[in-house]
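Worked example

This section walks through a single chain of length 152. The input is the sequence exactly as stored; nothing has been trimmed or padded.
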Amino acid sequence: MLKLYRLFLNTLELPIIIRIWCVAGLVLCPLTILLVVLPLFNWTIGGYQLSYREFWYCGTGLAMLVFGIVGTAGFWGMAARIPATRWLLVLMPAAPTLVMILYPGPCFVPESLMNTDIAVSVQIHAFIIYASLFHLPSIRRYFKLAGDSAQK
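Given that input, the structure is written out below as tokens.
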């Protein structure tokens, strides 16, 4: 438990906007995994009420589970100052769409997945995350501190 607290304290060295995003991800991504895996309630997706079984049968459950796993690994890796995990956060917006393309469920119409609005939105989000995590000097210093402490 103390190690988790130390990882959480690492985020205090991030810029405020990135810190808020990271801390939210530390909590919400694992919570997403729990809510997706446990059959606690019916889901409403795109205005349609889905039972737990339909939620998984359509592929939405798998897409959300992958999103939660990628996000959890990315945010906790960022808190642990593991530079390579930044790529998981860049991939995170595209993860559900990639899962739906690679594992097409019967409820998804392929044309709706290729919607240009979705594709553009995913690319814009991924680009903003990439630019923030790889090119901001404060983020570079944050991850450099991990390398400096590992060399000591």
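What to look for: The chain has one domain: 2-151.
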